[in-house]
Write a sequence for this structure.
């Protein structure tokens, strides 16, 4: 059974753990680099991006995450997590992880009174709309090469993916619909696992 | 597609995002910037920190909108602000200013001794203080999307926050053993709605996020409250009445994340300068205790 880490520096990591466990995935809370050992993927939850960015830096998680991402490690960021995955975030006073070529504008829909919920058409998840909760949400202003847009709200990308990296500007962990958690496991984590298993053979098999 | 704002999901959703974080009391935009730099997940704008309200006395009210606007413009993290218990016009003004959360707070002088604000009327979410499970669920029934312990603000003494958190958690443990036929009598005892008690029993926790507040002065205090089951921590006077506010603020943020890691707590608690001077609870006459405001 795969084990997925959930970054637990700050934010709604408990909800991501619950959703993942409900679909039979083992989870681990990640607060320090050592907690990353042996994981098959990592979720960066919603929370306050300035807070999480500082704690990532203070506890030395940025470089280990960048190294793993270069080796094809699956990562999924929701809201604040999507901000941190981005490579251009105007106004964020710490460097984001810069793993996904997207420009993300923070609090782009206004203040809390403008936070909203709505249904999204997500063809990759089937015909049934996905109910999405946007809390002081960021906006993906532009996407770079190789980034696939899986859903839009009023023209703006709200689910994007490049290989094993997934980003959503809303909070699928706040609703009981687990289709995006399933999608992350089958489309991002699954292929990465197969590739990792195939690697020793391709490389000549040292063990 | 239909777009809905101000729903309970959206209101309680912001509180979910604040979990594991520290919300700091600030009086000026300069304070707010220090708090954000230290890693606060939100700031709370108020006229005077509780320790000063206690010292100077008089009626404590909502902050001047100029200060609140200044704070909103100076940081990117959510900005909360306090209004007086029952003062629904202060609440409406705060909503118009664009604050992200309103604290209907016993720290300010109550405007109504009988009625809390009907928080369902607002698009902006509310947080309210509670001393026990019944009080927490009465506020939830009025539309509060987040609860915090009252503790005893401005004392730098954690004892009341511990009392209130233990009261809530202990009563939830008792509630979990009850059958449906016993909920009515329990609702009467707690003066709380049956439906919310049932929901709390089934979830095994409050239906909304529950933070600790009122007396947090050190990283160890923050970690203590987290281990007792708090979802996050409010720090009032504990930051800006300490010797080195920026360092204390940063240490409390880190302690709230690593509340279960004793080695890290030992490291971040070291060399912070003196915490705010505290007040022994027995020195505060019953009538001057802020926690007994509201019902």
């Amino acid at each position: 059974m795969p084990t997925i880490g959930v970054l637990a520096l700050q934010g709604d990591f408990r909800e991501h753990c619950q959703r993942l466990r409900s679909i039979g995935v083992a989870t681990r809370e990640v607060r320090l680099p050592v907690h990353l050992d042996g994981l098959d993927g990592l979720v960066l939850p919603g929370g306050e991006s300035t807070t999480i960015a500082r704690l990532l830096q203070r506890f030395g998680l940025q470089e280990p995450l960048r190294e793993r991402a270069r080796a094809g490690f699956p990562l999924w960021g929701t809201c604040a997590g999507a901000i941190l995955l981005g490579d251009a975030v105007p106004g964020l006073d710490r460097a984001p992880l810069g793993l996904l070529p997207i420009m993300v504008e923070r609090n782009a829909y206004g203040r809390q009174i403008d936070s909203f919920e709505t249904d999204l058409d997500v063809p990759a998840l089937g015909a049934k709309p996905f109910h999405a909760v946007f809390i002081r949400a960021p906006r993906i202003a532009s996407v770079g090469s190789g980034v696939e847009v899986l859903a839009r709200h009023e023209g703006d990308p709200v689910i994007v993916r490049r290989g094993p990296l997934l980003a959503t500007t809303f909070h699928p962990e706040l609703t009981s619909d687990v289709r995006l958690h399933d999608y992350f496991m089958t489309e991002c984590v699954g292929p990465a696992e197969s590739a990792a298993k195939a690697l020793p053979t391709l490389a000549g098999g040292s063990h | 597609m239909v777009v809905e704002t101000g729903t309970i999901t959206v209101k309680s959703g912001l509180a979910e995002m604040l979990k594991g974080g520290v919300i700091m009391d600030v009086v000026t935009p300069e304070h707010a910037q220090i708090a954000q730099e230290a890693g606060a997940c939100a700031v709370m704008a108020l006229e005077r920190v509780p320790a000063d309200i206690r010292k100077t006395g008089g009626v404590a009210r909502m902050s001047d909108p100029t200060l609140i606007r200044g704070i909103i413009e100076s940081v990117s993290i959510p900005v909360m602000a306090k209004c007086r218990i029952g003062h629904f016009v202060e609440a409406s003004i705060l909503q118009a200013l664009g604050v992200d959360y309103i604290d209907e707070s016993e720290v300010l002088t109550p405007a109504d001794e009988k009625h809390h604000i009907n928080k369902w009327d607002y698009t902006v979410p509310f947080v309210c203080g509670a001393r026990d499970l019944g009080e927490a669920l009465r506020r939830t029934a009025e539309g509060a999307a987040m609860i915090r312990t009252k503790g005893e603000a401005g004392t730098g003494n954690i004892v009341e926050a511990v009392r209130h958190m233990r009261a809530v958690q202990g009563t939830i443990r008792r509630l979990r053993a009850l059958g449906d036929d016993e909920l009515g009598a329990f609702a009467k005892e707690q003066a709380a709605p049956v439906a919310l008690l049932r929901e709390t029993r089934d979830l095994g926790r409050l239906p909304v996020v529950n933070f600790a507040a009122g007396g947090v002065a050190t990283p160890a205090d923050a970690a203590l409250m987290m281990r007792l089951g708090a979802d996050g921590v409010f720090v009032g006077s504990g930051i800006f009445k300490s010797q080195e506010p920026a360092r204390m603020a940063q240490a409390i943020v880190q302690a709230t994340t690593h509340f279960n890691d004793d080695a890290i707590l030992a490291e971040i608690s070291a060399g912070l300068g003196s915490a705010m001077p505290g007040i022994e609870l027995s020195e505060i006459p019953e009538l001057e205790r802020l926690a007994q405001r509201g019902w």
Remarks:
- Chain A touches chain B at residues 8-15, 31, 46-48, 50-51, 54-55, 58, 79-80, 91, 106-107, 111-120, 129, 133-136, 153, 171, 174-175 (CB under 8 Å).
- Confidence is low (pLDDT under 50) at residues 203-207 of chain A.
- The two ends of chain A are 22 Å apart (CA to CA).
